[in-house]
Amino acid sequence: MTDAPAPSKTPLWKSIATALTEDIAAGRYRPGDKLPTEAQLSARFGVNRHTIRRALSDMADQQLVLSRRGAGVFVHQPPTDYPIGARVRFHQNIRAAGRLPAREILTLETRAADAEEAEALRLPPGAPVHVCTGLSLADGTALAYFRSVFPAESLPDMAKHLMRLSSVTKALKACGIDDYTRASTRITAQRADATLALHLQCREGDPVLRTLSVSLAPDGQPVEYGRTWFSGDRVTLTVAETSPD
Question: Coil, helix or strand for 1?
Fold first, then answer.
């Protein structure tokens, strides 16, 4: 009589991945939540960090979690729908998706417009412009990095209002422009370079969607030339259909 083969043991990393997946399914960690650190998980399961990394890597392969450089590992959240149309309002779009919007201003400066900016804003070469860079966030997670350029001569107080209000719509209203519309939006795909990866807390080479846009005041004058880089796995850009004239 031969002995029956011993049952194979489940690898530790797989047991940990199963336990964490069950935690997510039970609602202990919700979409967008940050998981405990590797050190905390190592202590919980009594294993080394290499085993934890193997479990998290397997979960990432199944698109259950997402690692963000310098920020940690987060439960996967479906991309946020972001409509692109004649009236694009960041806070309104994010609230409509059931999430909490915020803007973080990183830099504000007034300088001479480069050739591209001057052409987009219909300004003379080298005309002064206000340039604002920052992050657009939903529930505290960066969805996009933006660079907005405004004509300084016609909007002399724009930088001051942006710093105070952190909203383009509110800042323009404070400058006397109650409404504005998108004249054009161009969308292209690219890979995140090191700077974008740092801002968006993603990996260098991850996909991003870049938009170039020009917004007009009611009198038809350009008031904003915007460049925005959206995280490819956190946002779905939807282009609104326009009715024929």
Answer: coil
Distance CA 54, CA 110 (A): 48
pLDDT digits (tens, 9 = 90+) for 153-205: 999 999 999 999 989 999 999 999 999 999 989 999 999 999 999 999 888 89
Contact 19, 30 (CB under 8 A): no
For residue 141, list its beta bridge partners.
Answer: 138
Place of tokens 């997946």: 21
Looking at this protein, which amino acid is placed at residue 173? K
CA atoms of 36 and 44, how far apart (whole Å): 10
Q: Position 193: which residue type?
A: D
β-partners of residue 18 are: none
230: exposed, middle or buried (Cβ count in 10 Å: 0-12, 13-18, 19+):
buried
Q: Is the entire prediction scored with pTM above 0.85?
A: no
Within 13 Å and on the Cβ side, how many CA atoms surround 96? Answer: 9
CB 135 within 8 A of CB 142: yes
Q: What are the structure tokens assigned to 133, written together?
A: 């860079």
Give the list of residues 6+ apart from residue 78 with CB closer than 8 angstroms, or none.
31
What are the E-state strand segments in 44-180? Answer: 65-68, 72-75, 80-84, 101-112, 128-138, 141-151
Torsion angle of C-alpha atoms 120, 122, 128, 131, degrees rounded to 10: -30
CB 228 within 8 A of CB 211: yes
